[in-house]
Write a structure and sequence with these properties.
It is globular and about 50 Å long. The mean pLDDT is 84. α4 links the parallel β2 and β3. The longest helix has 21 residues. α3 runs parallel beside α4. The protein is α/β, with parallel strands linked by helices. The protein is built from 9 helices and 11 strands. Strands 1-2-3-8 form a 4-stranded parallel sheet, sandwiched between helices.
Length: 229
């Protein structure tokens, strides 16, 4: 409250979150504290009557079906991380009059690995196994940052999906390593096979396609395709 009040910003873009998806299953209390911080920031923005942008995740959905998820679809997450992110969204929506909620998927930077653990395994072994039956809409940080700036300067409040276009995870991994200049063999495996090899993980969504039509409807520029150019 002190920092935001003294800064007197026109808006707050809240990017912080507890993003250790697997660890969240055993650290729900820590996740709850993260969600409480979202509520604290929302309360301050409400009191100062300023805009608030909350960065969320596709994991708020249950990950089933085949059609792209719409921003206002019913949430139905199946694990701790998604549940807390959903609660964060609801807190912002209930408390802040001038709010934006931007759901994103798998953040990546151009010429950088998607996942540090996969990159480390790939560099060490020269090969990684990546699921080929999960489809998502990866998000480029450059495209996301541009959209957030455009969006926060507008009054087109509400929930949005802020991602690039759909891509299978194994295809995405091939492109990531290629752009990173790493000679790594990517072996496609099923989610069942990957889960058996790396047990104890939170359940991942099979379908993380999320619709970006609302961006177009509201006059925002759509992101580039998922493949890096």
């Amino acid at each position: 409250r002190r920092v935001i009040t003294e800064a007197k910003p026109d808006a707050v873009i809240h990017c912080a979150a507890y993003t250790a998806v697997d660890a969240a299953e055993q650290n729900m209390e820590l996740c709850r504290k993260s969600m409480q911080r979202n509520e604290n920031i929302a309360e301050v923005c409400k009191g100062l009557d300023i805009k608030m942008m909350y960065i969320s995740t596709d994991y708020v959905f249950n990950g089933q079906g085949t059609r792209p998820w719409e921003p206002d679809d019913h949430r139905g997450t199946t694990h701790a991380y998604g549940s807390v992110e959903d609660e964060g969204e609801l807190a912002v929506e209930e408390l802040v009059k001038k709010f934006f909620i931007a759901d994103r998927v798998g953040i990546w930077r151009e010429r950088q690995e998607l996942h540090q653990d996969d990159a480390a395994r790939g560099k060490e072994r020269g090969a990684v196994s990546v699921v080929d039956d999960q489809i998502g809409s990866p998000t480029c940080t450059y495209d996301l940052a541009r959209l957030l700036v455009d969006m926060i300067q507008s009054d087109k409040y509400g929930r949005y999906h802020a991602t690039n276009e759909d891509l299978q995870l194994d295809e995405f991994a091939v492109e990531i390593f290629k752009q990173a200049g790493m000679d790594v063999k990517v072996t496609p495996v099923s989610t069942a096979e990957y889960t058996a090899a790396y047990p104890g993980q939170a359940k991942r969504p099979m379908n993380s396609r999320i619709s970006k039509e609302k961006l177009s409807d509201k006059g925002f520029e759509r992101f580039r395709p998922g493949r890096m150019r």
